[in-house]
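Example A, followed by Example B.
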Amino acid sequence: MKVIAIGPWSLYQVLIQADPEFAELFAVRADFASEMTWNEEHIADYAAFISRQVRDRKLIHFSAAAVASVVEFGARQLEHQKKLTTRFLDITNLVIEASHWAGKAGHDPVMAEDVERALEARTYRSNLTQTRYEELILDRTVGIATDGEVVGQVNGLSVIDLGDYAFGRPSRITATVAPGRGSVQSVERAIELSGPIHSKGVLTLSGDLSGKYGESGPLSLNATVTFEQMYGPIDGDSASSTELYALLSALSGLPLKQAIAVTGSVDQFGRVQAVGGVTKKIEGYFDICQQRGLSGEQGVLVPAANVKNLMVRSDVAAAVTQGSFNLWSVETIDEGIELLTGVPAGERDADGRFPDGSVHARVLERLGRFAEFSNRQRQD
């Protein structure tokens, strides 16, 4: 007799550590990937799988366009332009529901629009929490600006995961600055609502500030950043670039475009790094902008490393193509701050000085005034 145990990696680790005989009884271990490469061979596998489900469950046959829609769904599940999910239970459920809607519409074979109808129905059954949150934004209970310019304020993006449904949520992030001892304080960290990864992100952006502006001495700065109207735990470093943009705006006095939402983590050298859930974040912000009316100025700033993860809905893609919504990718904080302010970030010349009027020159000037104030305070 052969015994095969199937389960998550975490359970395997518990068993192999708790029972010395487990490794002897189950000597062969095999990992099953939850993804596979999106290529012609695996597209054919998807088509064969759909055909088998149709035959076994006596469903309506699928057209080539409908199969293509299911394949695209498989990529959207992973948010990757070159990968397909191997969670075939999700594919089976979609095939069954698409066949149902095709039958209601009198279609034979199943059309791509039937697959889209099934996906829309699935979303409608699960998005009550998202709808309620959007209502709070649209009636101004939760303050999220999608136009105008504000100093020290920017729209960040996060993902709310409800288990079987996830959606992107915009958040207003603000920063204030004053003379001090070189600290960047996160309100969430101070009241213990910040997880360890978020705290790491705040410390990392502090390192970027020190490395860029602290050549002549310690920064005489007391800065505070916070997520406004957020009352639950916050974790992850995907907002660290957003918090840094808010700080640079507060220090330079340059307003940030509120039509642009931002996601991305940052390293100590000002490089913008990839984050998770970028497609959901884009769609969440798009939904708010669309309900308020697309202006052509709105859009989302994402890390260049996340471009391969963009698998947005067809309505978002159409809006981008038409120019009524925008997607920008950046590799550095300098690129992002130029887009958000419309002012050149500035590069150091041979003497180590930034061009007059640039973002970095304005920040250094403000930090210089803070240093002078702190010196006078110590002398008094």
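Example B, a separate protein, is given below in the same form.
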Amino acid sequence: MELWYTEKQTINHGITTKVVNCLHHEQTEFQTIDLLETLEFGRMLVLDGMVMMTEADEFVYHEMIAHVPLSAHKNPNNVLVIGGGDGGVVREILRHGEKIQRVDLVEVDKRVIDLSKKYFPEVTSGLSDHRVNIHVQDGAQYIANTKIKYDVIIVDSTEPVGAATPLFQLDFYRAVFNALSPTGIMVAQTDTPWFKPNLVRKLYGTISSLFPISRLYTAAIPTYPSGLWSFTLGSKQYDPLYFEALPELKTKYYCMEVHRAAFNLPAFVQKLIKKKDELNE
């Protein structure tokens, strides 16, 4: 008997992959966690029925959400990651070497961290670094109360459901702005413009209302809905279109050319994030 896993990405569309085995299933206080062994993508982490990461393509998301803001900032010493209990973003941050002095990871569900360490040891390799501090708590509460001023804040959240819902609100992004240094940069995953255009528009509008510089960029991630994923960056000073080349990074997807190209948006995405007065010009 063949086993297949299907993620219903909309009420009319899903993505299906052949499964060898279910490695783990658990209902935590916050969400349902499934670990699957697939033929096409290797091990797969699924939260509340949504694919979060696979062995085969996790590097795309983690590299693009981390290296774009870190390359744009001139001196990113202190970095905060909201979410990201799988450790992939932390791993990529640490590739920037000695300039990284402190990384705080805030993950609400400790089981995501524990299970990622067990099933994705290469992804979580950076979590044992002496510069990394792990906080098991609500990300919105942490950012509202922290006294630390971060150079870069990365919001590696799940979809806007359950415990992650506050991470998509204006108050949260105000707190992010206040927790950044005077030259700080933040970036958040902002879903797909194909299936969630209203969410992309809302989040871009929220971030652009707070930051003097705001940019949306994309990456191709095969196991995420539609394959086209967006990130929205807000910066107090540095424009990510002007950045330092970092050839020493050992990456699989991110590079200087991809950094530049990621901000060249398809016409329908450009229209999506334009203000109403600009659409009428």
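On Example B: The chain has a mean pLDDT of 93.
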